[in-house]
From TrEMBL:
Sites annotated Interaction with DNA substrate: H248
Organism per entry: Mesorhizobium sangaii
Site (Important for catalytic activity): residue numbering on this chain: D218
Keyword match ATP-binding: no
GO biological process: DNA repair
Name listed for the protein in its UniProt record: Exodeoxyribonuclease-3
DNA sequence: ATGTCTCAGCGTCTGAGA
């Protein structure tokens, strides 16, 4: 079973890119982030025609997350992260697919830092940690996939000083991610490629794609009971190079059935 | 400070967010 995460950066603007990649990669499950569409504007009919059922949580202009499943509709279990009733941002959706609980995650960017947006990012990652623990203790197999907006270590960013003050690599951001992963969750990409520089995001600015000046921000965390099923993990980098591409590429894992 | 891209709105540019 192939499970992918893809920050699409506007699902309607880039629907043709998404469908072209899906025809080629044939993922069983796709977690999407940054839909940038309200619920009514989500292209469910077109995805259905491509063979995928979907659950989604949209929002006007910003954020928005979805889970797609080939040949079936995911069974929705949650549409928001617990822990803050005031939080109306569409950054979390969770569903059961093929016996696995899958979450599509879009963590806050957190810039500029320091400031309220950075505080919100750290608090949000803390809430995710709490909820991830609840999920893990349920004993179900779980995949937490999405854009965490954290490059966990210096191996997850090209050698540079340009991002020194950016929320994506601050020690507090990295510590929050590390706490979440803890000793239980498996960072699937790192498990399969312990020492490689692997990126999932290349900023539009400053020629960063042609220079391969990327960051690894999109992660698939597996609950420990999925350890022996993980057979492959990679990034479909070429997707970043096509016309009208998102600034992220799809990251994916393969699980033995 | 800049670079890129996109969208919304007191709109054919500007500010905001990533």
């Amino acid at each position: 079973m192939l499970i992918a995460t893809f920050n699409i950066n506007n699902v309607n603007r880039r629907l043709e890119n998404l469908l072209a990649w899906m025809r080629k990669a044939k993922p069983d499950v796709v977690c999407l982030q940054e839909l940038k569409a309200e619920d009514w504007a989500f292209p469910a009919d077109k995805l259905e025609r491509a063979g995928y059922g979907a659950v989604w949580k949209g929002q006007k202009t910003w954020n928005g997350v979805a889970i797609l499943a080939r040949g079936k509709k995911p069974v929705l279990t949650r549409k928001q992260l617990p822990g803050d009733h005031e939080d109306g941002q569409a950054r979390y959706i969770e569903a059961a697919v093929n016996g696995i609980i899958v979450a599509s995650i879009y963590a806050p960017n957190g810039n500029p830092q320091p400031g309220p947006k950075f505080d919100y990012k750290l608090a949000w990652l803390g809430r995710l940690h709490q909820h991830a623990t609840v999920l893990r203790k349920s004993g179900a197999p779980i995949v937490l996939a999405g854009d965490y907006n954290v490059a966990p270590t210096d191996l997850d960013i090209y050698p540079t000083k340009s991002w020194e003050n950016d929320a994506l690599i601050q020690p507090e951001s990295r510590a929050a991610f590390k706490r979440l992963v803890g000793r239980s969750w498996i960072d699937a990409m790192r498990r399969m490629h312990p020492n490689e520089r692997i990126y999932t995001f290349w900023d539009y600015m400053r020629n960063r794609w042609p220079r391969d000046a990327g960051l690894r921000l999109d992660h698939l965390l597996l609950s420990p009971n999925l350890k022996d099923r993980l057979s492959e993990a990679d990034v479909d980098r070429e997707v970043r190079g096509v016309d009208g591409a998102s600034d992220h590429a799809p990251a994916w894992i393969r699980l033995r059935t």
